[in-house]
Structure formats: structure tokens, C-alpha cells
Design brief:
The chain has 4 helices and 7 strands; from the N terminus they run αββββββαβαα. The chain has helices at 4-8, 93-106, 136-146, 155-165; strands at 14-25, 31-39, 43-47, 57-64, 67-79, 83-90, 112-114. Helix 3 packs across helix 4. The model is unreliable at 1-8 and 110-128 (pLDDT under 50).
């Protein structure tokens, strides 16, 4: 698990996704196929039973959602038998644009995992602005549908779904 201190060092939010990654150690040429489970504009996390040590430079070919991105990266965190966090260090302009498109294709506020995202204090809404629940079964079904491909729900999204389900 990544500590809060590590999460605060991220330059951009990361998003959960699934894709394939071909990684090659630049110094030795040793390569392997892995999967990546989250990505941001500045790095990604790959699952790998064999993890490179921190500081190793890698050539990366990432594929997800019909996008292919090539980059050079540095292993920033390594968890033996689990995976590693990689920071992108070099990328062409074309690949940078493809990365932006990839992130745009998967980014929804409900799947942000971390990063420097502005958080506002929760506000207490007056009771009259909260909708009543006339049909609890419809509300539960709408919530269940929402969570089929998402992991988190914000207050505004909750209220939107609640109102729409009634």
C-alpha cells in the first residue's frame, strides 16, 4: 500500500484501468510482459511477480482502450512478487498526446485514486434540498448499476442518482 506521504508527492491524479505493458530494462535488455492497473500523466503501476529494484530505467510500451503509448520510465517503488510504481521520465510529443487521450478516456471523478486533487469541505445541505425516497428498490438498483464499473461516489453524484431514480 502506498503511504499518504507518497500519494502527496504525485504530480497528477492516477486512474484505475487495465492494460498490457511490455517493459524492458534499458541496461540489460531483460524484458517481460505485465499488466498495469492504474495510470496518470506522470506514471503507472504495473503488476509483476518479478519486480525491478528502485532506480532501474525501463523502456515501456503500454496498451489500453485502443491506445498505445511508449515511454522511458524509472522504477520509483518496488514490491517483490507484487509489482512496481514507475515514473515516466521521457516521452515523445505524440506519445504524450496519446497518454492524455488514454487518461481522458478512463478518467471519471469517481475513479480517482490519489494525487493532488483539490478537496473541498463537505457542506451541510438543508434538509429540504435532499429528496425523499419514495421507491427504495429503484434507488438501490440505480446505486448498484453505478458501482458496476466504479469504486467511489461523491455526494453530488449520489444526489443526482437518487433524484433520477425517484
Amino acid at each position: 500500500m502506498i503511504s499518504q506521504e507518497s500519494a502527496d508527492k504525485r504530480k497528477s491524479p492516477r486512474y484505475r484501468c487495465q492494460g498490457s505493458a511490455h517493459i524492458r530494462e534499458i541496461a540489460t535488455g531483460v524484458a517481460m510482459w505485465t499488466t498495469f492497473t492504474d495510470i496518470s500523466l506522470h506514471g503507472c503501476y504495473v503488476e509483476a511477480t518479478t519486480a525491478y529494484r528502485v532506480g532501474v530505467m525501463l523502456g515501456l510500451k503500454l496498451e489500453a482502450n485502443g491506445y498505445r503509448v511508449e515511454a522511458t520510465g524509472e522504477v520509483r517503488v518496488s514490491y517483490p512478487s507484487l509489482g512496481m510504481g514507475i515514473s515516466f521520465t521521457k516521452m515523445s510529443g505524440e506519445d504524450r498526446e496519446r497518454l492524455r487521450e488514454l487518461v481522458r478516456s478512463i478518467s471519471r471523478p469517481s475513479v480517482i485514486l490519489g494525487g493532488r486533487v483539490a478537496m473541498r469541505a463537505p457542506s451541510a445541505a438543508p434538509a429540504e434540498t435532499l429528496p425523499g425516497v419514495a421507491n427504495p428498490a429503484a434507488t438501490l438498483q440505480a446505486m448498484s448499476n453505478f458501482f458496476e464499473d466504479r469504486h467511489m461516489m461523491g455526494r453530488e453524484e449520489f444526489l443526482r442518482i437518487l433524484r433520477k431514480s425517484q
